[in-house]
Amino acid sequence: MDIPLIAVVNGPNLNLLGKRDPELYGRTSWGEIREELREKAAEIGVELEFFQSNHEGAIVDYLQGLRGRAAGLMINPGALTHYGYSLRDALADLDLPIVEVHISNIFAREEWRSRSVISHVARGVIIGLGTRGYLLALQWLAMEIGRG
């Protein structure tokens, strides 16, 4: 039996987690988050593939490459949440359950951050629960694809 693949995608500046504005995003590094997700994925019986880029086009290219390979996707689009229309269109073209994840509460921040062009194509959105949002997204996706 094949092990289902769940893709984990992070947008701009999220490679700096643990260093970037720790009062807002926490002190946990992206490497630590990945390791925690890998451990949970092994328990659940899914494979994870991680991708991060500061460039919208690179993320779009990656998403297009998921066709026929991935069973689910979690994405933290970072600032692309608010204006990433090509990212939104690439996500809409995927036939996958998608969870949008935000570490901070985007509705409690600047006015321009309270709008997501991504949410309409995601099955669910996890906002403001810190880095635990990634684990919650993984658990939901696993259940959605019959592994939870």
Explain the overall architecture.
By secondary structure, this protein is an alpha/beta fold. The protein has one domain: 3-Layer(aba) Sandwich (Rossmann fold). It is built from 5 helices and 5 strands, in the order E-H-H-E-H-E-H-E-E-H. It has helices at residues 22-25, 30-44, 56-64, 85-92, 132-144; strands spanning 5-10, 47-52, 72-76, 98-102, 124-127. Strand 3, helix 4 and strand 4 (98-102) form a beta-alpha-beta unit. It is globular, with a radius of gyration of 14 Å.
Q: What characteristics describe this protein?
A:
148 residues, alpha/beta, Rossmann fold, 5-stranded parallel β-sheet, 5 strands
> How many discrete structural domains?
1
Please identify the structural class as seen in this structure: alpha/beta
- Please work out how many helical segments DSSP would assign: 5
Strand element count: 5
Question: Distance between the terminal alpha carbons, to the nearest Å?
Answer: 16 Å
**What CATH architecture do you see?**
3-Layer(aba) Sandwich
Shape: globular
Helix content: 25-40%
Mean pLDDT: 94
CATH class: Alpha Beta
The succession of helices and strands, N to C, reads EHHEHEHEEH
Task: Tell me the CATH superfamily.
Answer: Dehydroquinase, class II
Strand arrangement in the largest pleated sheet = 2-1-3-4-5
* Biggest sheet architecture: 5 strands, parallel
Q: Report the sheet-strand fraction.
A: 15-25%
CATH topology label: Rossmann fold
Alpha-carbon Rg, integer: 14 Å
Give unreliable regions as ranges: none
